[in-house]
Amino acid sequence: MFSTNLLCLLYLLLALIMEFILCVRSTPIRSFESIGNSIEEQPEDVLIDLITRYGQTIMRARDDLENSKRTVDFGLSRGYSGAQEAKHRMAMAVANFAGGPGRKRKVDIRNMKD
């Protein structure tokens, strides 16, 4: 007797849960309905202003890109003389470095053991 009442209660609870799930899945999402009309509701001057500002932003970004190409140029794209200039600058940087080229002093191995 007790188990049949419990079984009926579980069936009823299961039916209510299934009804709730089906109800939730069938309800439309209202937030997507308003997106379609949002462009039509905007005034034309606001849209034109937005497009103008977007175009100016693109032009500024393009100018910045062109100016960023003018960074360090060793003249490698100018042929042999540019390559010579690059080698000269690299050699000068190495020569100014403390451990750069030059006469190295011989290290006495006997003094290093102390």
TrEMBL record:
**InterPro entries, sorted:** DH2-like (IPR034439)
* The organism's place on the tree of life at top rank: Eukaryota
Q: Where is the signal peptide?
A: 1-23
* Molecular function terms, GO-annotated: diuretic hormone activity; G protein-coupled receptor binding
Where is it chiefly localized?
Answer: secreted
Instruction: Name its cellular compartments.
Output: Secreted
An example GO CC term for this entry is: extracellular space
UniProt KW keywords: Secreted, Signal
Instruction: Work out whether the entry's keyword set contains Isomerase.
Output: no
Q: Does the keyword Kinase apply?
A: no
- What are the recorded Gene Ontology BP terms? body fluid secretion
The family annotation for this protein states:
Belongs to the diuretic hormone class 2 family.
- Name of protein: Putative diuretic hormone 31
Organism field = Culex tarsalis (Encephalitis mosquito)
